[in-house]
Structures
1.
Amino acid sequence: MSVSRRDLLKASCAVATALSLGSSALRGRDALAAEEGVPVVGQDEEGKVADWQAVAEFLYGEEFWYSDPFREVEGLTEEQLFWVPNPKCLCILWQAGHIAHRERTHIGRFLQGVEQDLIPSRYEAFGPDWCSVDFGPDWCSVEEMRSSIDSVGEVFAWVRDVRKESRAYIASLSDADWHQVPAGSEFGMTVAQWVFLTTVHAAMHLGRIQLLRALLEDEHDRPC
C-alpha cells in the first residue's frame, strides 16, 4: 500500500474531529484540507460523515508508521531494548509494551467490556501504575521489569496479538457503532473517540522510542 499525503491528511482530519480539538486547530486543518482538495473535516464531498472504519484500518495498519512500534525497534539487541539513560527512565521495551497495554485496555475494557483475563499478569509491568511521576512505591526499575516478563520475543508476540485483536474489532463495527457510547466507556467517550485517541497515545510513545534510540546510538540530531 502506498500512503499519500492526501491519505495522511484525511486521517489527521478524522483524528482531529474524533478528539474534538479546539476551533482554532480545526480551522487550521480545514484550511490545509481545502488547499489539498480534501473534504472538510469529518465529511466527504457530499457532506456525509467520513468513513471512520476506513480511516481506523489505515491508522492501525502496518503502513502507518506512527502506529507500528516494530519499525522503530528494528535491529536493536535485547540489551539495547532495556537500555536507559538514567535509572529513573523507562526503556524502549517498556514504551512498546505500554502501547499494547493501553490499546488493549481502551478497546478491550472500555469498548468491548472485557473484565477478566484482559492482560496477562506478567505484562502488567507495562501498565500506568508502574511509572508514577514522583517515582513513588509503584515505580518499576528495568531489573524489575526484566524479571516480570518471560522474554522479549514473547512480549513482541503479545504486542502483535493485541494489534490483531484491535483490527478484528474495528472490522466488526457498523456505521452506527462508531457513534455509540459503550457501557464501560470512561468519560462518556464514543467508540470513534477511543479508537482514535488510542492511536494518538501510540504516536506519543513512539516519539519517546525514537528519542531513546537516538540517545542510545549517539545521534542526537537525528530527525524523527
2.
Amino acid sequence: MSGFWRLGSSEPHRRSRLAGWVVCAFSALGCVSPRSHLVVVSHAAGESLEAGHHEVAIELYQAMLVRHVDDPLADVVLNNLGVSFENLARFSDAEAAYRLLLRGHPHSRLAPNAAFRVAVNAERSFRFEVALWQYADLVARFPEAPDAPLAAFNRARLLEGLERRAEAARAYRLYAERWPDSDDAESCLRRAAWLDGSRKLQRDAPSPVPAPPLLVPDGVVEPGAS
C-alpha cells in the first residue's frame, strides 16, 4: 500500500490472519512489555490497513500512540495514521496526524513527506492559504527532498488557480530556476510569460496536476530501528 510503512517482519502476511491479529492487538493493550505491545498492535494495524479496514487501523494506531507517544517509532505510527485518514478522505484529520509527526519528530526520515502531505491535505480541505504556506515551507526546510520540486510546482499551480497571476508567474520562474534540468522547466517559463501577458500560452505548458500519490518507501522499519 502506497505510503504505508510496516513495523516488524518484512515477510508478507496473509489477510486471513487479520482477525487474529486484531484480537491479539486488543489483548495486548494490557500486556506488560511496551515493546511487545507495540509490535503486536502494529501488525494488527498493518493488516487492517492493507485489507481496507481503515477505521480499525485508525483505532489501533491511536491506541498505540496513547501508550507509545514517545517511542522512537512513533513517527511511523503517525505516518500510517495519516495514510489511514487519507484513505477515508478525512483530510483534516490526516493533516493533523502529519503535523504531529513533524512536531514530535522533525528529524525523521518521514518528515519531508509528512510536510508535503500536510500541504496536499490542506489543499484538499480548501484551506488554500495554509497549503501555499506549507508548500513554500517544505521547499525552504527540505530543499533536497524528493517532493520539493512537486511542492514548488503545486504552489505555482495553486496560485494560478486562485487567479493570482503575478504571484503564479514568479512561482513558475522560481521552479524553473531551481530545477532547470526538469522536464517542466521550459514550459513553466513559457507559462510564466503568458501569465505576465507577454505572449500566448504554448500548447505544451504544464496542465494542473492533481494531488500526487503517497510516498512508496523503499525499505521496512524494524522494531527497535533508529
3.
Amino acid sequence: MNPDYVTRPKYRRKPLTTPAVRKLLAFLASCGIAASIFAYICSFSGVRVNSIFLWEAPLVLGTIALYVPIYAVEYSARESASPWRGITWKQMARGMPSWVTPCAVLLLLIYVGHFVWFTVHTGLGVPSIRDGQYVISHGRNLRVLSQPEYFTLKAAELRMLATLMVNIYFVPMMYWWYRRNQPQTS
C-alpha cells in the first residue's frame, strides 16, 4: 500500500480537551460558584466564617484542581518553548464570547468593593475574640468591639471571601465551558 494514501489523524486529542472532561471541569467550577454564592447568602443570616470553614478548604483545593489543567493545556498549546514565557490572558480567552471579560472585570470590582469596605472598617485587622473580648487584631489588639459590631464584621469577612471565590471560579468555568479544541499537529 502506498503511504500517501494512508489516512492519518490531522491532530491528536489530548485527554484534558475531550468534551466530556471539559464539561466535567466546567460543572465543577459552576459548583464552586454555587457554593460561594450560597456562603454569601448565608452570611446575611448570621453564619460566620468559622462555621463554614469546612467549606473553605475544599473550595481552595477545587480552584487548584481547576487551574492546573488550564495551565497544562495552555502550556502545551503555546508556540514558544521557552519556560520563562508565561500564559497570557489573550491565549486563555481564545474561543470565549466577548461578554466574558466584562463579567470577569465586574466580579473583580465587586470583590474589590467588599475588600475595601472590610479594610476600611477593620483597619487591616481581623475581628477575633481574645481574652473573652471582641476585638480587631493585627498582631495586637487594635480596637475593642461590641458583639453586634463583631458579628457584622465577621459576616463582611465571609462575604469578602465568598466574592473572592466566585471571582476565582468564574475564569475556569468560562474557560472549560467555552473552550474550543484547536487542532494540534502530532
4.
Amino acid sequence: MRIHERMSDTEVEQNSGNWRTARFVLGVATGLCIAAIVVGALSVDMALKSTEIAGQGPAPTEAAAPSQPSPEPATETEAAQAPAGDTAATGETVISQEPAGLAEPASSAKSEDTGSSVVTSQPPAEPEVTDQLAAKAPVDPLPAVEPGNATTTETGASSDGSSLPAWERNAVAVTLPADTPRIALVLENPENSDIPHDLILGLGLPVTMGISPIDNPAIAFGEKARSAGFEIVARLPLLDRRDPASTADVIHPAMSAAEIEAAVQRLLQGMPQAVAVSGVGGRQVASNAGLIEAVMLALKPEGYAFLDDSGQRNAVAVQIAQRLDTVALGDVRVASGAMTDDQVYRLLDAAAQAAETTGAVVVAAPASAAVLIGLQRWALERNGKPARLVPLSAVLSIQ
C-alpha cells in the first residue's frame, strides 16, 4: 500500500517536471519565433529603403576646376566677344550673344554653387518703329499707271517720268510690235451718256474717254475712268465766236492769248491726268488758226497733245503743231449719234483697213448704245486682224 502510494507520488513529481520542461521549451520556441518575425520585418524595411536610395543615385556634384591662379571676373563685354563653346578664365562656358543693336543688354546673375558672375543672353527684341523714324524713312510712291507708252521703242526719259510730256506721262502702258496697225477710239462725253457709268467703265477695251472738265460730276467721272485704266482727253469749250452768255472758262476768238492761256490752265486743273485736249463748240473753230495756235501754246509747257476731232478737212492743227514743235492729231473719223450699230461696225472696219496703209487712224464717237454695241461686235470679230484697238497715246507715239 505504501509502496503504491510512493510510486504514485513519484509519477506525479515526474509528470510535474516534464510539464515544467515542456512549458520552458514552448516559451523559448515562442520567443524565438517572435524574434525571427521582428528581425524579418526589419530586414524587409531596410531592404526597401536601400532600394529607394540606390534608385535616386548620388547627388550631382560639379567637377572641381583645376587649381589655378584666380583670374579677374570676365566682364559682360568680354563674354559677348567670346565665340560660342569657348571657356572663359573661370572655366565656364560662355554663350555667344546676338550682334550689338539686335539683342537687349545681357543680365548678370550670381551662381549659387560657385558664386561667379554668369552672363545670360536675352532673346533679340524687335526694333521699335517710331513716328520719327517713319518720317525719315524714304518713301517711293508708286504711280497708279506706269508712265510712258510701252512699245518696242524706248523714250529714253527719266524713270520717274518727270521729263516726259503729259501725253507720255499720263499714258497707259501698251506693248505691241511697232509695225502693228492701230485704231484709237475716243468716246465723247461718256459722263453725259444714258448708258450707266459702270457699264461704260466695264467695257474691258482700250478706248479713250473724251470728257469735258467743266463741272464736278464730269471731273469725278474722269478720275474714275483714269483709275479704271482708260486714257483721258480733256474736251475744252472752244467757240468760233463770242457768246455774251458764256462763262469765263469758255474760249472764243475775242479773247487775248493771255486770257486763252489762263482759261486753258483753269480747265486742266480739273483734269491734269489727260493725254490730250480737244475742242467742243462751233464747227469753224478748227479752221481758226489764231485761236488754235493760242490754245496749243498754252498746252506746250506741260506737253499735252492737241486732238482735232472736228472732222473738218481744212483743219490747221497739224500744220501749227509742226511749226510750234508740239504734237497734234488731225484727220479724225467722226461717228454721228444717228448711226446704227451696223454703221458703227462698218466705220471701224473701214478705219482698220485704212490703218493698214497709214499705220494709225483715230475715230471719235459719242458714248451711245449703238456705238458701244457696234464696238463690242467689231472687237470680238475684227480686233487684231491685223489692226489693233489701242489708247490714243499709242497713236501719238508714232506720229
